[in-house]
Amino acid sequence: MQNGLATLHVPDEFRFFGPDDAQSIIVRLWRNPPGPKPLGMLLPANVTPLDPDSWAVTIHYEEEGYVKDDDAGQIDYTSLLRQMQESVRDGNQEREKHGYPAVELVGWAAPPHYDSSTHKLYWAKELSFAGQDEHTLNYNIRILGRKGVLVVNAVAGISKLAEVEKSTPQILSMINFNEGHRYTDFDASTDKVATYGIAALVAGGVAAKLGFFKFLWVLLLGAKKFVIVAIAAIGAWLRRLFKRGEVQASASQPAQAVDQTDREPTGGGG
Question: Is the pTM of this model over 0.85?
Answer without folding.
Answer: no
